[in-house]
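Training component of the fellowship. As part of building independent skills, the fellow (R.M.) carried out the full modelling exercise for a liganded target. The chosen ligand was adenosine monophosphate. The inputs are recorded below so that the supervisory panel can assess the work.
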Amino acid sequence: MTKFQERVFSGVQPTGTLHLGNYLGAIKNFVELQNKYNCVYCVVDQHAITVDQDPKELRSNILEVLASFIAAGVDYKKQIIFQQSSVPAHSQLAWVFNCVSRIGWLNRMTQFKDKAGKNKENVSVGLMVYPNLMAADILAYLATHVPVGDDQKQHLELTRDLAIRFNNTYGDTFIVPKAYQPKTGAKIKSLSDPTKKMDKSSENQKSYILLLDDLNQVKNKIKSAVTDSEAKIYYDVENKPGISNLLTIDAALLKTTIEERVSHYKDMSYQDFKLCVADHIVAALKPIQEKYHALIKDPSLDAILDTGRDQAKMIAH
Ligand code: AMP
Ligand code: TRP
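Fellow's submitted model of the complex:
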């Protein structure tokens, strides 16, 4: 296959303001990939309704994700950005995949197990078949590369299994896609418990940095990030998860390696190290926030989604 035919697809749920993990694990890579590939980026509102949503809030969150994509650098004039529910092919193909997928496959999904917890009998059917819809999103566009953070790798494996099973049963139809993961940043950890991933559903607001957080608050959150008592800066995820997470964030933001960052910081105090990391985060977020606040007031945002829908429909159909 030539480069020309290769296509990138990814999706983000409109479930509240995006955080630094979403940015480093996914959206920053959306921007980098658009120089090499044709890209399709989707605001996946049908995934969001697998749990209850307030309709008004959901509508404003859809525009918030769209504005965040553009503010972070996705070029809506060259790439396709659209809302999942505006293209019926996603639900249509998802039904086909509901019939190809196996209950055992879905039961093994760690995200489903985490979200359902002990309440497995009482969660929506949508939450369980969510990976089939995600597979439909990707395979309807014959996407070759899917930029996602670590937590979506298992869903992408299931997508590949579905494509292979369908192709084997009914003939060669779908392209088997690959995950595209950044060298650093695919799993940004919580600032308050760096053994867990950064997640906006955490109750502790100090555990995550939102793309739209007040910049002084960002500095305070980094200052209070949990570290260790050794007072020596090096990378060791097992024994120094907090310091390792800050090194990862820094390397991802500066597009360099963790080794390079370690040699830069190795003689610094934790306090000075944290100040440097905070400055780098603020430098990355400031222009995004400025663009975002100008965009979110712009009434033409809806028209961007309309154009995206028309372009996406033509491919998916
Ligand atoms: P979501 O908000 O769940 O729709 O996630 C959007 C994208 O951000 C997906 O590609 C996720 O894999 C990615 N992502 C979410 N949390 C993190 C994290 N803590 N570190 C890196 N990537 C993440
Ligand atoms: N499941 C992804 C998440 O929660 C979002 C998503 C839906 C997605 N469809 C997709 C990501 C297709 C990549 C490709 O983050």
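The panel noted the following from the submitted structure. Residues 21 and 188 are 5 Å apart (CA to CA). Residues 12-13, 21-22, 24-26, 148-149, 151-152, 186-188, 197-198 surround adenosine monophosphate (ligand 1) (CB under 6 Å).
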